[in-house]
Amino acid sequence: MDQPDMVRKVKGPFSDKLGRRWTCACGREHHIPTRWLDVGYGALERIPELLLREGWRSEVLLVADDATYEAAGRRVALVLREGRFRVKQLVFPLPLMATEEVATHLLGRVGGEAGLVAVGSGTVNDIVKWAAHRAGRPYIVIPTAASMNGYTSPVAALLTRGVKRTVPSSPPVGVSGDPEVVTSAPGDMAPAGYADLRSKTVADVDWWLSGWLFGGYYCHLPREAVGFWEGELRDRLPGIRKGDPDAVGVLLMALLDSGFGMTVAGTSSPASGGEHLISHWLDMTAPLHGRGTALHGAQVGVGTLIASALYGMILDSDPGKWSSNSELPSEGMKERYGPYAGEVEAELMKKTSERPEDLLGKLAEGWEEVREEIVRRWVPPDLLREELREAGAPTGPEELGITYDLLRDALLYGREVRGRWTVLDTAYLVGLLPSRADEALERAFGREVSRHG
After folding, report:
1. Integer Cα distance of 44 and 81 in angstroms
2. What was the pLDDT predicted at 368?
3. Is 189 in a helix, a strand, or coil?
4. Does residue 393 fall inside a structural domain?
5. Within 10 A of 357 (CB to CB), how many other CB atoms are there?
6. Residues 175, 323: one domain?
7. Would you say 54 and 174 are in contact if contact means Cβ atoms under 8 Å apart?
8. Rounded to whole angstroms, how far apart are CA atoms 133 and 151?
9. 450 inside domain
10. Do residues 248 and 306 both lie within one domain?
């Protein structure tokens, strides 16, 4: 382009740590295996040079779906061939879901290629990441939307026997993203990506509190990295809503750094808490009832408002009046999850290592410390809702195409689908759920809500 490439001039907290090992203040050695991020105009034309620098030769396997192939895959294949690579292609028809069956099919197509080239967003990236890891091959990703933060993470999110699971998988060797390509995606994808990024405000609190309750590991670095990008994006929210390439390009870089936060932590916990379980529950139950789903980030953004509202209610509560409702459900699992009930129950049972009364006592005894830490990290739902609206992201069930009652069920039952402790469990532990679910939703959306609508 003739204009200056402003996107490439914005450097994030992990820019100087790619491919390196270092020890941070948490006392752990961290390693980011991804060796390059090239986010800027003309990035696709630079791919062959970067691959040759990595020692790739001969044949590559390019993977896309029908839409992402037209958006960038065809062009990438041409650029690679001009760079004297042989290109084998696998283009999936739409609709495409990130299931273990689809990823296994891809794995069966991997041969002696130097590596894999993923052209797409969440679904394509997840199945390629999973297959490349299991085949022992490196891969690179060419994002076609700034819609989620999983590009650079150390996990792939796949539906396995009906349950959404995050499976350990190697991050990409490199990322090449052109702002013009990601801006050509449907207009609701970048706002969904911003909503996914803002979910880290509540996921970080979940991660910290879980570590405090159960003695698990916590590192400040992922939240600090996202905090840096919050400042960079504050004045770019209208640009994200309008599809401005510079604004969406910076958003993509923020999402890539959020993915590095998961790599640094060695877990998806910094980026996925109770707000993601609400989205996962909607995804899991959709095929059982013949309904569709909204974009991942859009659902997560609405879940973030709910999780933030729950934390606000916990902060307002009196520990002397806490009364646990966290007993595991004994009925209704079959009705909710059909053939997947056993898988869900197995996940839920991972939370039974300590008795609820013991956890409640520990939380009440340490409440002064815990409350101070939550307040330091928490962002109120009113502020989050204003930012999501400015970026063009959904802020209520209607914008997701679902009913209030369905979202209420996701709030009440979302904790069942994952063994990870989140604010959904804490709200049950202190007795806020299930009885105050309607209040949580009203706080989340800033308005009264009517049931059956």
Report:
1. 13
2. 97
3. helix
4. yes
5. 11
6. no
7. yes
8. 14
9. no
10. no
Model pLDDT, residue 387:
97
The amino acid at 417: V
Q: Say how many residues make up the chain.
A: 453
Same-domain status, 196 and 274: no
The CATH number of residue 377's host domain is 1.20.1090
For 141-198, how does the pLDDT look when each residue is reduced to its tens digit (9 = 90+)?
999 999 999 999 999 989 887 777 889 999 999 999 999 999 999 999 999 999 999 9
Interatomic CA distance for residues 245 and 179, integer angstroms: 5
pLDDT above 90 for 57: no
Based on the structure, what is the number of domains in the chain?
2
Q: Is residue 46 part of a domain?
A: yes
Cα 208 to Cα 195, 220, 336, 377, 423: the distances in Å are 21, 9, 30, 10, 11
- Phi and psi at 69, nearest 5°, equal -65, -40
| Paired residues of 177 in beta bridges | 39
Average model confidence (pLDDT) across the chain: 92
Please work out, in degrees rounded to the nearest 5, the angle formed at the alpha carbon of residue 339 by the alpha carbons of 338 and 342.
Answer: 100
> 238 and 91 in one domain?
yes
Instruction: Work out the pLDDT band at 438, boundaries 50, 70, 90.
Output: very high
pTM to 2 decimals?
0.93
Q: Residue 315: inside a domain, yes or no? A: yes
Q: Are 156 and 232 found together in one domain?
A: yes
Q: What is the pLDDT of residues 107-134, one digit of tens each?
A: 999 999 999 999 999 899 999 999 999 9
Residue 313: both structure tokens together? 């209610």
Residue 34 reports pLDDT greater than 80: yes
CA distance 308 to 207: 14
Domain interval for residue 252: 6-203+221-265
Domain boundary among 242, 265, 288: 265
Structure tokens at 64: 């896309």
Query: Which domain CATH number covers 56?
Result: 3.40.50.1970
**pLDDT value of position 162:** 75
